[in-house]
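In practice, a research group might receive sequence data for several interacting partners and want a quick structural hypothesis before committing to experiments. The following worked case mirrors that situation: the sequences arrive first, and a predicted assembly follows.
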Amino acid sequence: MTLGLVYDRIRVEEKELIESAKSRGIDLKLVDTKQEYIDIHDEKEKLEEKYGTTVLIRCVSYFRGFSVGACLENKGIKVINNTKVLQICGNKLLTSLALVKAKIPTPKTMVSFSLEGALESSEKLGYPSVLKPLIGSWGRMVVPLKDRDIAKAMIEMREEMSNPLDKIYYIQEYVDRPPRDIRCIVVGDEIVSAIYRYSPPDDWRTNVARGGTVEPYPVNDEFEDLILRTSKAVGGGVLGVDAMESKEHGILIHEINSTVEFRGAASVSKCNIADEIIKYALKLDRR
Amino acid sequence: MVKKALCEECGNEIIIPDDSLVGEIITCSTCGIDYELVKVEESRVELKEAEAVGEDWGE
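A structural hypothesis for the assembly, expressed as tokens:
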């Protein structure tokens, strides 16, 4: 077997994955997507020579990762995560739909397609509510809509943007919660790490990329069952499942990341997350 | 041998850490510009200005 890792930027996580593969003596193919092209007619064997027989998709750009994954999968090469999972997790609306279908508790969400529809849905949800982009991460363009005036201003700004995805308005109820959320790293059918992520003092978002701090989260059976059902609902694999502690409704799942960053979790976890991912890839390759 | 490159923006000499990998981001300590490491050879290091964060970037 040969394991592949496709990337467009080497972050701490990729370095740890490379290190783990090296320590296991794995023939790791590293491919920078920015320096390559793919002939979609190439035979599987030719693609495997460059990319490996099982490939970890680790691009920071969602569309790059998804596109490379689709090309490889089309020739029967195993990719982690598979493109169905990448597609669902890379789009907040598709994620919410999968959660609702699987009856996983999630914040009340509305989607609309015009200024009028967006204002009406935010009125229905009540203020404050939260406007999020369909695609994107690290809390970028996530805006609390505190009242109708702010909602109108934000939606009008989005109407002026050129990307058609920006004109689809995904608005969620504002969940009354402690200033933290829970990040679970799921690898296959196991939670390998669970942490609290605390908002930095000057922000309401909890993303580690925004300077949030972390500490271990004590997982109980009920929580584990919920997280594993969530993972299954979007197709499984290597995932970062984010949950909130709603004061009214208990645990709610609000986001699932399919190219999970784990430096925050790794800093307080006993297990080697990168190595768990590599072991999972090896297991998948043997199937 | 310590690997170095010149910052195109401010002319500072950027030291490339030994454990750097191609694809990693190196920041100029003087002007703060981010570079991506494109090539590392015995005697030569190639940098290019790093991409700006895209709308679809993230996890």
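Before designing any experiment, note the following. Chain B touches chain A at residues 21-25, 36, 50-51, 53-59 (CB under 8 Å). The beta strands of chain B are 3-6, 13-16, 25-27, 34-40, 45-49.
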